[in-house]
Amino acid sequence: MNADKETLRRIAHLARLDFDEKEEGKMLDSLNKILTWVEKLNEIDTSQVEPLTHMTDEVNVLRDDEVKEPLPHDRGLLNAPDKDQDYFRVPKVLE
Predict the structure, then answer these.
(1) Domain count, the chain
(2) 72 domain residue, yes or no
(3) What CATH number should be reported for the domain holding residue 15?
(4) What stretch of H or E contains 58?
(5) 65 phi/psi in degrees, rounded to 5
(6) Residue 15 belongs to domain spanning
(7) Could you read off the pLDDT tens digit of each residue along the chain, which spans 95 residues?
């Protein structure tokens, strides 16, 4: 199965993508490579393969909590782009 420019334009419209003629050619080439790859996958018998829900067997691998000293106030504000004496200053978002 090969996609044509019209199919690519419909997909781009649905995905709210916008690209020029040069990029359209690259996208069409990439899309056709993906479709060819999927067609090859369809040739493989996967009837005896269990569906994956995760790529690994690891579940909820988290680091151990470590109690540390809190960051001092002055160090916390050290790299702030704009600050008051005690607070970060941010642009107003509500009127």
Answers:
(1) 1
(2) no
(3) 1.10.20
(4) none
(5) -70, 135
(6) 5-42
(7) 788 999 999 999 999 999 888 899 999 999 999 999 999 988 989 889 888 887 787 778 788 999 999 999 889 888 888 988 888 888 888 87
